[in-house]
């Protein structure tokens, strides 16, 4: 029996070599693993949402897409009730605009409680930009390209549910910037990550100069960016760049499995409380601590005793995004 839409989603990068930031633009919805050869499309393909097969553990079931853009439903893992942790779905080819559309679809789905980013390519999460390709662009094209990437990272960071990046390989340049846009990061011990743009005569342009200092502190972020240093997953955990580092397995997906376990820890928690905790933390980090305490108080008031806005969301009468806007308006009206 087909269960309800799973309460998590997985975004996968299926690019064959994943050697550029654009590989992120091929990310897929609810895709559990690598795709077979011959089905990996170039980021330049004028594609749309395309059915993606399931690959991976034998417990995973294959879901059949109904039409492009439609969310897929499928069975959960063996031993789990319908609506448990399950996956299958679509991969996306084309431009960042299509990934933005995919994120918009998931953002409106109140049943998605965790969004997980992983690569479909063994040994690589995303290895950065193709400078030769960028050199062929005009200045105007480069500006548009970077602005779109920056906007895409912003949308990932603003996703209402928790986001997790599973780094099972190289995460360089824009690949690490994508991971930094996520709430949580899990890396294999053998993963390699870094903002290496200064070694190429550039600087991080998709949020790296802003998110890395907020993650590690200003001095350490400057050191890593100035030197273009690469870190292993183990080193990244010691510095606090990733939440967890795990020993890589033979399949090359240890970080993904640890990220999935982390998602399973989040799923049972009250979704509105989790989402408003994210609002309180993210908004609070943008202001002084007194204002941050006020934001926390506003968010707390919405979940205490399931007050009216929370009740409206839990019953499906309003969207979480509307509640976030409600909190934003309250914060704005409370400031001088």
From TrEMBL:
Output the Pfam families linked to this UniProt entry: ECH_1 (PF00378)
| Transmembrane intervals | none
Q: Where is this region: Disordered?
A: 49-85
Keywords assigned by UniProt? Lyase
Biological process annotations from GO: fatty acid beta-oxidation
**Gene3D superfamilies per UniProt:** 2-enoyl-CoA Hydratase, Chain A, domain 1, Lyase 2-enoyl-coa Hydratase, Chain A, domain 2
A molecular function (GO) held by this record is: lyase activity
InterPro entries recorded: ClpP/crotonase-like_dom_sf (IPR029045), Enoyl-CoA_hyd/isom_CS (IPR018376), Enoyl-CoA_hydra/iso (IPR001753), Enoyl-CoA_hydra_C (IPR014748)
Q: Is the keyword Translocase in the record?
A: no
Biased region (Basic and acidic residues) positions are 54-78
The source's domain of life comes to Eukaryota
Write down any Gene Ontology CC term: mitochondrion
Answer yes or no on keyword Cell inner membrane.
no
- Similarity comment: Belongs to the enoyl-CoA hydratase/isomerase family.
PANTHER family listed in its UniProt record: ENOYL-COA HYDRATASE DOMAIN-CONTAINING PROTEIN 2, MITOCHONDRIAL (PTHR11941:SF44), ENOYL-COA HYDRATASE-RELATED (PTHR11941)
- Its name, as the record gives it, is Enoyl-CoA hydratase domain containing 2
Q: Which organism is it from?
A: Equus caballus (Horse)
